[in-house]
Structure formats: structure tokens, C-alpha cells
Design a protein that fits this description.
This protein is mainly α. Strands 2-1-3-4 form a four-stranded mixed β-sheet. The longest helix is centred in the middle third of the chain and has 22 residues. The N terminus is likely disordered.
């Protein structure tokens, strides 16, 4: 996600710029970008749902040491994400104030979106890839040599076809669908996106009413991709993007499913509701010109029992949950009131 994606007056529908830098970091030692512990830096913002996916997958797989992470602030201007959270506003490893500088090193005169997540080659300071769907798949399939003992298989080979199929319709109608509703340039395009979104949420409700996770009986990439949108639904999308048929907390099956994941190590402990709200309400000036950030909603419900265990399933399969997040990566306690003790900074 980058700057406020304002829809032009003559453009009815929101079109996401998907012209990514799509080089891949692979386990092939002869490739231009081979997997190497410590060589790359994953740059994220906790506000961004696409970046939040990478944060979750990295944590579930235990890649914290192999793939260090830089965290940009929750807001940015039209040019770039910035490292407002670091001393002096400078990333301590890359030595830059603006992520756009790493894109410029990769492509001089770079004129596309400066988005997160981005994987930066530390020796050159250049972005290798910002292809967010592929980044998380590669963390699962190409970085296996550095997975922690007990890391779950988030992209099991036997289920990849179904995971890809589910992920595609979730992306089209839900992940990106909320943006199509929020940035619609006409009433008709808004209503199309709105109906498609809630039709898909109804479809997901039916699917998840009979199984604990989206594909198979364990957490997979598909669940990660859906969770980051659900986590932002009530704080942002319901009001800010006019996705207001129902709040997530008024959809019992999806609300229980989201709480099940939230209470699983790797999901809730990477969710920063303060950053999420500040980003959307401050950056999206075309929707919220006053930049006033709402105080609600009450988020304590995320910690309530979900009852999804009755559906069976094994969240980590034959693996184990990750341990507590590293102290330097913990979400502040006042940024997420539903965090269990010991998970927050």
C-alpha cells in the first residue's frame, strides 16, 4: 500500500497499481537473489494489511533472525513511507529516511507505487521485490532452511490449488473489495463493490460454519490473507470505506473465526490497532479531509472466547506455535487492548 489512491473524477472504479518489482529471492544458490540469512531486510508498516501478512508469516515460520525487519511509521506523504519510528527518522540498517530511496536505487527514476512490504538487499540498499502475494509464498517455500523447528506448513503442496483458488476470490472480493468500495468514484461502482464484498463474506460464513480454517484442518496462507482484512474491518472499513451492512462483530461465524486466529500466536500479537486507524484516517484525505481519527470501536472483544475448537482442526498441524515475539518487535500494550500478558511491549 502506498499513497492515498484517489480515484480521478472521470474514473468510476478503483484500480490498484500492480506493477510490482517482481524479482524472487529463491533457494537456488545460482540465482541473482539467493536466500541468505541477514542479507535482506523486510520493510513493513504495521498499518498496512498487505505488509501485515508478511509480518505474520515471518513470525509463524520463525524467520526473525534470518530476515530482519524494518518498521515504517503508520502515515506517509504522497512520495513515500518514512521511518518515523526510528531515532532521527532513519532506518538503522539501511540508513535512509524514506523507503522511496531504496526503490530509486533499484530503478532510477522509479515512478510507481512505493509500497510495503518490500524486501531490500542490504549490501546495495535496493528493493528486490514488493510483490506482496509472492513474498509470503516464498517465505514458506524458499526460506525453509531457516524455518524454526516446528514451523507450520502454510502452503502444503497437496492443498496449493485450493489455497490459490480461495485466496484469489478473497483478494478480488474482500481484500481489494473494501478498497473498491471505499474509493469508488460513483454510486454505481460503490454499490457493485459493496454487494460483491458482502456476498463473498456470506460465502465465507457458509464455508467457515462447517470447518475451522479456510482450507484443510490447519492454518494456511489463505487464513493469513483473510485475517488482515477482518482485523481492520470494524476499526476502519465499516465506516471509513462505507462497508457498513454489518460490523464484523455482528457476523457471528466470521467474528469467531477472526478471534480464533487473533488469539493464535503470530496473529494478534502483530496487530497494531493504533497504527491501523492512524494510517487510514490520516493518509486518506480524499475520504477523511479533517484527518480526525475516531476513538472507537471497543476492541476488548477480540480477547473473548470463540468456541471454534468444537470444529476440530489443528492450528499448527504437526508443528508448534511460535514463542513470544522478540522484545524489539512487540506491539505496545496501549495499541492493542486485547493482547494477552507477555505479548506486548
Amino acid at each position: 500500500m502506498s499513497a492515498d489512491p484517489v480515484v480521478a473524477d472521470d474514473q468510476e472504479t478503483y484500480d490498484r497499481d500492480t506493477r510490482y518489482l517482481s524479482a524472487r529471492i529463491t533457494a537456488d544458490r545460482s540465482s541473482r537473489w539467493p536466500v541468505e540469512a541477514g542479507r535482506y531486510r523486510l520493510v513493513v508498516s504495521r498499518a498496512c494489511p498487505w505488509a501485515n501478512r508478511a509480518i505474520i508469516v515471518r513470525r509463524l515460520l520463525g524467520l526473525e533472525d534470518a530476515l530482519p525487519m524494518g518498521v515504517a511509521g503508520p502515515t506517509h506523504d504522497a512520495r513515500s513511507w518514512t521511518f518515523d519510528l526510528d531515532p532521527g527518522g532513519v532506518d538503522p540498517v539501511l540508513g535512509i529516511k524514506r523507503l522511496g530511496q531504496a526503490y530509486e536505487k533499484a530503478v532510477p527514476g522509479y515512478d510507481r507505487g512505493v509500497t510495503v512490504p518490500a524486501v531490500v538487499d542490504v549490501p546495495t540498499g535496493a528493493v528486490v521485490t514488493n510483490d506482496f502475494p509472492q513474498i509470503t509464498l516464498d517465505l514458506s517455500t524458499q526460506w525453509q532452511a531457516f524455518h524454526r523447528p516446528g514451523a507450520p506448513d502454510l502452503y502444503p503442496e497437496a492443498l496449493r490449488g485450493e489455497i490459490d483458488e480461495v485466496a484469489e476470490v478473497v483478494y478480488r472480493d474482500v481484500n481489494n473489495g473494501v478498497y473498491e468500495a471505499g474509493f469508488a468514484g460513483s454510486q454505481a461502482s460503490y454499490e457493485r463493490a459493496y454487494r460483491r464484498l458482502f456476498d463473498r463474506l456470506d460465502w465465507l460464513t457458509q464455508r467457515l460454519s462447517r470447518q475451522r480454517f479456510l482450507v484443510g484442518d490447519t492454518i494456511t496462507e489463505a487464513d493469513v490473507r483473510l485475517f488482515t482484512t477482518l482485523a481492520r474491518f470494524d476499526p476502519v472499513y465499516h465506516g471509513h470505506f462505507k462497508c457498513n451492512r454489518s460490523m464484523l462483530s455482528q457476523m457471528p461465524v466470521l467474528w469467531a473465526y477472526a478471534r480464533d486466529l487473533f488469539q493464535t500466536p503470530g496473529f494478534g500479537d502483530t496487530t497494531d490497532f493504533v497504527h491501523i486507524k492512524e494510517h487510514y484516517y490520516v493518509v486518506h484525505r480524499s475520504i477523511n479531509p479533517t484527518q480526525v481519527v475516531p476513538l472507537g470501536p471497543d476492541l476488548s472483544g477480540w480477547a473473548t472466547p470463540h468456541g471454534r475448537e468444537e470444529l476440530g482442526g489443528r492450528p499448527f498441524g504437526d508443528g508448534t506455535p511460535p514463542g513470544p515475539p522478540p522484545p524489539s518487535e512487540r506491539v505496545p500494550a496501549d495499541h492493542n487492548p486485547a493482547l494477552p500478558p507477555g505479548w506486548a511491549a
